[in-house]
Amino acid sequence: MTEPNLPWTASVRVHAGSPAVVDWLEQALRPEAAREVPRAHAEIRREEGGSLELTISARDSGAMRAALNTYLGWIHLSLATAQAADRPK
After folding, report:
1. Distances in whole angstroms, Cα of residue 78 to Cα of each of 25, 75, 85
2. What is the helix (H) or strand (E) element at residue 77, kind and residue range?
3. What pLDDT, on a 0 to 100 scale, did the predictor assign at position 1?
4. CB count, 10 Å around CB of 66?
5. Are 89 and 41 in contact (CB under 8 A)?
6. Are 45 and 53 in contact (CB under 8 A)?
7. How far is CA 42 from CA 8, 23, 83, in A?
8. Each residue's pLDDT tens digit in the chain (89 positions)?
9. What are the structural domains of the chain?
10. What is the pLDDT of residue 4?
11. 54 φ, ψ to 5°?
């Protein structure tokens, strides 16, 4: 939920391709989204069709940039790891 003192908001929808990867990605990101961060707040929500939506709310543009960069990096790393683990040996 967006708090009134966090006017900057961004949403990212991730289509992971399989429900198992979406589960794994959600498990990887949920502990980070639950952490207390002074200038930003993140929520993770499952979407129909096998996707995950991340909503970030931040107090200022610097906090938004930092939170987006952090979460996008984690998402990229998680999906790259899942893809590498799925490759035939």
Report:
1. 6, 5, 11
2. helix 61-86
3. 47
4. 16
5. no
6. yes
7. 12, 18, 25
8. 445 578 999 999 999 888 888 999 999 999 999 998 889 999 999 988 889 999 999 999 999 999 999 999 999 999 999 888 877 76
9. 8-82 (3.30.310.50)
10. 56
11. -110, 125
What stretch of H or E contains 34? helix 19-34
Name the residue type at position 54. Answer: L
Residue 48 has phi, psi (to 5 degrees) of -65, 150
Task: Give residue 85's identity as a one-letter amino acid code.
Answer: A
Distances (CA, A) of 73 to 3, 49, 53, 68, 76: 24, 23, 15, 8, 5
Distance CA 72, CA 84 (A): 18
Give the Cα separation of 62 and 1 in Å (integer).
20
Residues present in the chain in total: 89
